[in-house]
Amino acid sequence: MSAELPSPYSIMQLALGFWSSKALLSAVEIGLFTVLAEETLDAPALCRRMALHPRGARDFFDALVALGMLERKDGRYANTPETERYLVRGKPDYIGGILEMSNARLYGFWGSLTEALKTGQPQNESKQGGDLFAQLYADPERLALFLKGMTGVSRPIARQLAQRVDWRRYKSVIDIGTAEGAVPVTLAQAHPHLTGGGFDLPPVRPVFESHIRAMGLENRLRFHPGDFFSDPLPAADVLMMGHILHDWDLTVKRQLLAKAHAALPKGGALIVYDMMIDDERRTNATGLLMSLNMLIETASGFDYTGADCAGWMREAGFADVRIERLEGPYSMAIATR
């Protein structure tokens, strides 16, 4: 008997994965999950509410059911626990801002991945002479949406950091590239003895301070304006860098780690978290794809393994470096000065 032939369907599923991605991104774009947070609806009513043409609407809703993004009972559609928490606009853990940006920008840019692989050049606004961050920081409304999206992405990681680090050893923490301040807020809420704040470019200040006031933490957390390329980092017992190092080339990565080492007191700690690639570069597909996203989005950024990060930290003068896996694709590196 001949050996059973391998199936092509896993290849097909992966190759057509953009079908699933775009279905979810379109659902976020039209606010489907926000509507279903108000009430469950059957297909005709949901179609009318969302102003969708009836031809594709039922297949669209049922595809989201099959993908685990919606539930359907007695013909009525509802959010899953995950989409109810993370994809309803206005909720604290909403991550849709990042998904909306991905839909509007990244989805199209990734169509030029082949060109990026051949040229090594970014494929975003820079191809037309634009600059994503210059445009973003010049538009307060767009910046606020982006920063809120970063809050949704960062808060689940911050909850893990609040539990996994022995914060009894430290009194203060500063989050570098803080956005709205989700990380220091979460840490301060979990550990009432902590003070500190966040460091970011000056246009972020009003958004950060508004968020801190809303959380009732203005007496414990404050904003430190600055540019980590030209300004020294603020002093604290713990400095944090999340979603920062992967934006830059190796030279800048090393410079930022050296700056953190210089700013910390003896016994202080630097915590870096990112979608670190597994050391064997075999299993964390999300981390590897994020590194390709840095190819698309930046001039020289790339993601890295835990072993890479630990080596750079030791070169910067840190001791007692350890890498710990977090939930999902994330890991953190903790280094003591």
UniProtKB/TrEMBL annotation:
Q: Where do the catalytic residues lie?
A: H246
Query: What's a Gene Ontology MF term here?
Result: O-methyltransferase activity
Report the residue ranges that make up the O-methyltransferase C-terminal domain in this protein: 110-318
Among its keywords, does the record have Ligase? no
> Keyword Cell membrane on this protein?
no
CDD domains xrefs: AdoMet_MTases
Top-rank taxon: Bacteria
Q: Report the residue ranges that make up the O-methyltransferase dimerisation domain in this protein.
A: 12-88
Record keywords, A-Z? Methyltransferase, S-adenosyl-L-methionine, Transferase
Name under which the protein is recorded: Methyltransferase/methylase
Tell me the lineage of the source organism: Bacteria, Pseudomonadati, Pseudomonadota, Alphaproteobacteria, Rhodospirillales
